[in-house]
């Protein structure tokens, strides 16, 4: 079982900021900015590669929730970054789909042109 499924099952602790029957959001254990929240589906989906058409509403809810959490944590006015890493080249470490909500600092650097 992946580590995020264990957090969903309350087998390991997390600083939860939102929970409903489909979605859990919690603080990243190694934040890269003052606000770093992970938003995950409770249903196990390994990565964006495993999404199906039937997951469109779930993914939409995750993005709308990210906006609401950004508002609650008062970073929406200055802006934030939403990120889904996928697979090896994408740098995904945990094999359970997650949306990073990152903000509270200027975050210009992560993606740069290669030419
Ligand atoms: P990714 O590289 O996109 O797969 O991101 C995985 C993220 O999960 C990293 O930012 C980790 O810091 C975070 N992470 C790993 N284990 C935990 C945990 N137990 N609680 C909270 N965040 C975690």
Which characteristics define this entry?
115 residues; alpha+beta; HIT family, subunit A; 5 strands; 23% helix; globular; binds adenosine monophosphate
Sum this structure up briefly.
Helices cover 23% and strands 22% of the residues.
Care to describe what's here?
Helices cover 23% and strands 22% of the residues. The chain is of the alpha+beta class and 115 residues long. The chain has one domain (3-103): HIT family, subunit A, CATH 3.30.428.10. Strands 1-2-3-5-4 form a five-stranded antiparallel sheet, with helices on one face. The radius of gyration is 14 Å and the shape is globular. It starts with a helix and ends in a 12-residue tail after the last strand. The mean pLDDT is 96. Bound molecules: adenosine monophosphate. Adenosine monophosphate (AMP) is lined by residues 3, 12, 14, 28-30, 38, 85, 91-94.
The class by helix and strand makeup works out as alpha+beta
The string of secondary-structure elements, in order, is HEEEHEHE
Are there runs of 5+ residues with pLDDT below 50, and where?
Answer: none
- Within CATH, the superfamily carries the name HIT-like
Count of DSSP E strands? 5
How can the largest sheet be summarized?
5 strands, antiparallel
Strand order of the largest sheet: 1-2-3-5-4
Global morphology: globular
Which CATH C-level class is it?
Alpha Beta
Mean pLDDT: 96
Strand percentage lies at 15-25%
Helical amount: 10-25%
Count up the domains: 1
């Amino acid at each position: 079982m992946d580590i995020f499924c264990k957090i969903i099952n309350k087998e390991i602790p997390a600083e939860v900021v939102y929970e409903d029957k489909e979605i859990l959001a919690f603080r990243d254990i190694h934040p890269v900015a003052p606000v770093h929240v992970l938003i995950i589906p409770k249903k196990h989906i390994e990565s964006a590669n495993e999404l199906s058409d039937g997951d469109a509403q779930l993914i939409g809810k995750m993005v709308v929730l990210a906006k609401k959490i950004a508002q609650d944590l008062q970073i929406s006015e200055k802006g934030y970054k939403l990120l889904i890493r996928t697979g090896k080249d994408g740098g995904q470490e945990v094999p359970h789909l997650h949306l990073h909500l990152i903000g509270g600092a200027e975050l210009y650097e992560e993606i740069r042109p290669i030419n």
